[in-house]
Automatic annotation (TrEMBL):
Signal peptide: none annotated. Residues 65-168 form the AB hydrolase-1 domain. Keywords: Hydrolase. The keyword Hydrolase applies. PANTHER family: EPOXIDE HYDROLASE. It holds the Pfam family Abhydrolase_1. This is Abhydrolase domain-containing protein 7. One of its GO terms (molecular function) is epoxide hydrolase activity. It comes from Pararge aegeria (speckled wood butterfly).
Amino acid sequence: MIHLAVRRLWKGHRRKLSKNCPPVELTVDSSIGIHCYIKIMGVKYHYVETGPKCGKKVLILGDAPDSGDLWVPRWSSVVRRLAETGHHVITLDLRGTGGSEGGWRSDLSPPRAVEELRALLLALGASDKNPAIVIGFGIGGMLTWYLVHCHGSLVSKFAVVAAPHPNLYWQHPPAAFCQGSIHFIQWPHFPESWLAEGVLQEGTQWASSRARDWSGALNYVRGAAWYRVHAEHRVQARA
C-alpha cells in the first residue's frame, strides 16, 4: 500500500479526460476585448484589454485556477459597463492560469508576485500621478491586499471580493480542518492531482480539469500562508 501511494504521488494521478470535458486552455472570445501578451520581469502574462486606452485604468485580478469565471454574463457585463463609461480595463490571467506563464512556489510568493504586479502597472502606464483602480477576487483579491499595502501609490481605489485581509489568518486561528488543509497543500504534486480528480468527478468543464492547472493557484497560496502585512504598511487608497 505504501509503495502504491508513493508511486502515485511521485508520478501524479493521471486520469483520461472525457471527450465531452476538454480542458479550457484560454478564453479566446474576442467580443469583450483584445487579447494581449506582455513580458514582465521575464514572465509572459496574458490579459484582455477593453475600453479606450486614454481612460482611467482598471486592473482586474481574477481567481485561480479558473479564469473563466471572469467571462460569465455578470462579470463580462461589468467589464463592458466600465469600458462604456470610459475606463481602460485590463483583465489579467494570474500566473499558471489561462495564457499566463506558471512558476514554482518561490516564483509566486507574495514579494515576487507583488513586484511583478507593480512592474505590470508601470508598463501599462500607471504611475504615482496616474494611479490605477484594482479589482480582485479570490486569489486575485489576496494579491490586491498585498499590492495596495506595498505599492499603494500606484492604486487610487480598490475592491476585494471573497478574500479576507491576509492578517486575519494570523489574528484568528483557523478551524482544525482549514489548518490541516494549509499543511496539506504544502506537499508537492499530490494536492494538484486530488483537486483535479474532484473537478472531473463533478463532470463540469473547467480550466482546472488537469493536475498541472492547479499548480499556479496552489503555489500562490503555498507562499501566502507564511506572509503577513506589517503594521506600518498602511493602505492609502480608498477601498
